Protein: Kinesin class 6 (MKLP1 group)
Organism: Aspergillus mulundensis
Amino acid sequence: MASNPPSSLFQVYLRLRPPISQQADQPERCLTVEEPDASHSSNDGSSPASAPTHITTQPPSDARKRGVERFGFTQVFDESATQLNVFEDTGLQSLVKGVLLEQRDGLVATLGVSGSGKSHTILGSKTQRGITQMSLDVIFKSLASTIKPPENSIPPYLLASVSASDASESQMFTAQTFLDAVYGESDRGRNSRAQTPLSSTRAHTPMAVWKSPLLNPLQRIPNLYPGQWGLSQYLYKPASLAWTKTTTSSSNALQVTASDSHSPSPLPRNHQPSTAELHDANVGSIKDPMPALIFPRRHAPMRASTLPRSPDVSHLTLELNPHSEYIVLVSMYEVYNDRIFDLLSPAIVPGQGSAVSRQGASSQKERRKHLYFKSTEGSPDRKVVAGLRKIACSTYEEALAVLEVGLTERKVTGTGANSVSSRSHGFFCLEVKRRMRNKRTGEETWIGNTLTVADLAGSERARTAKTAGSTLVEAGKINESLMYLGQCLQMQSSNQEGNKTAMVPYRQCKLTELLFSNSFPSQQTASMNRNPQRAIMIVTADPLGDYNATSQILRYSALAREVTVPRAPSAESLLSSTLGSRTGSNGRHSPQLGLAEDLEKALADIEWLTAENERLGLRLTEEEMLRAETETALIVSEDRCLLIEQEVREECWAEMEERMEQERKRWQSAWDEQTGHNDDHIDKKIELLSRGFQIHEDPQPSCDERVEELEFENDQLRSRITALERELHCRSPTKKSKSKNTALESSRNANILGRESDIEVALRKMDQLKLADSMFRGPVVDSPGKKQRKMATRKWDLAPEDDL
Ligand SMILES: Nc1ncnc2c1ncn2[C@@H]1O[C@H](COP(=O)(O)OP(=O)(O)OP(=O)(O)O)[C@@H](O)[C@H]1O
């Protein structure tokens, strides 16, 4: 089994985690490290000959029938391996060397089940440094004599020049400016990191370093390099948000200063930046640094002196050309829910002073701007994460302080599997750029390579990790991306085993794209003298952890795999031993020897059956492995289903709420309309009623009108009396005289009374008239049932008695 094929994209190492605490009832151990094979030595010398390279799985006792799997890695580190062992034996020094000297990018990533020790390997603990700190230390120690400029601060012009040749559309800041923005001047003296999310959530991997309360380097610029860089010409004024030329001398003053022949590294005359050039440079920080540097304020982290300094890696320092000039840029990003987010430019929640990344999945998704992994104008041959914030660091401490800032932004949550579980794939990039000058044209540029350290989130099962809601969504995305990563790694190992060159399907998700894109040599990269990256994968596993999850990860990542079925003692050997034991000591066969032939026949049958059994056992194991893989795919699908279900539920809920709101509004408007109508209706009714109740009073007639009225009535009455008298004349004379006498008498009586009211007079007069009328008409024969109509009293009946 070739455990370390030369063409592998990734060197894959396995590291076993020691038990955290000694429990009385330790779970069964599921992994056993094989003793190193003396004959084995790695093809490229990437692992020492005495180092173990294989591991076997021990299925739990309730599943003994399962086949034993044997996995091959570049090297296996058992529980006793220290951080320094891992750093040295994984060849991280050669990765650093590739970045510094060989124009080769380096990538180191950790992969494993949640809680298996990935972050510990990458970032270390309170007492031990991780491979990130050690790599940083080696790089800064190697660059110590060459890193420019001295006094640990970077002049802005230098940054402008670096930025102009940067291909990733980044924003650049010096570490001092950046850390000033993060911690502020007032907090510099404090040493507590109690309030940083990192301190509470990731206690085992302290990264905080920020010790030197130096002045803002930019404030000291004018005196820094008077002769060499001509920086006295430029002064950074944060208030004006721009580089301004402080001198009023002629425009070529800078060129004169910069081309000073005494300068140890003079800039070419034709490449000194004019103000316009600086303005045109693709640097957000230089055009407009302060707005981009808004950052939630933090308290300064713990003192550098309290941070672990071991393991010491001074002996790994590399020799570099002392005349070269380097600059180190640090950037950090995370892949969260298959999107890339810059960890050094977080979104800000107004008034809260904390990054949005701590606010939960949805808000994070909504408020942070995600970045693209793409080819840019300046980098057509390879993809880069565009638009990152890059911090120029000139010391190890500065780089660690920036790393600390990025880590506090990273999404970490407590789950059932790990109390500080990473919920995103974190990438820490260390770009080392070297100044290159074209001797012929004098053109200056900065080229460099990047060492990327990736701390991948751990795979987990929703059931064991007890995740729900947004954490479940994250877990689904994590598992999915790890499944794709597993497919790529499997393709890599099957390519090597069968010498095929099948396509590694790395474009399926952001994680695999970021890890694999730059691993393949292309024609363009070859023409640009750029080597494909070197990559190391450190797989971490807990030997006392979950068998299924651990063996699944190992199946993904191992460079080689074998399956063996535990053999039962062969029937042949059993029979031979039985027969042998029955042979007498004197050499004679026992009486049962006659059965030997039958037994031999049976032996052959048994042998055949045993072989068949083994074959079936092997198939069973293969089927089981297939089933395990399908189970993983099922878990991923289940996670996806849950995710979809959750999304659908949320959508339905939102739609229902929207509809309810619409209905409510509709009912409200109908109600308002109806109420308005009712009010109108009632108003109208009231109006009508009030109109009906209005009492009309005739105006009091004036005296003249009354007189006139009465006179008119008198006339009427007189004419009526005349008519009656005339009628009376036409009838019997006796009645006539009597009647007349009666009328006259009445009139006389009325005159006598004199004081009777008009009404009484009128009533009496009416009675008289009725009487007279009945007399004149004679007896009237009324039809039965017909009522006699009474004459109503009228105003004109009320004539004064005198008139009558
Ligand atoms: N080699 C080791 N030596 C001592 N302790 C270790 C080692 N590896 C891991 N641990 C401890 O185990 C615990 C879990 O480790 P860690 O946080 O690194 O897991 P992880 O794989 O990064 O988990 P996740 O994927 O959930 O982030 C920590 O307390 C860590 O200190």
Residues 710-778+793-797 form one domain. The pocket of adenosine-5'-triphosphate is lined by residues 17-18, 20, 112, 114-120, 125, 204, 418, 420-422, 457-458, 540 (CB under 6 Å). The radius of gyration is 54 Å. The longest helix spans residues 596-692.
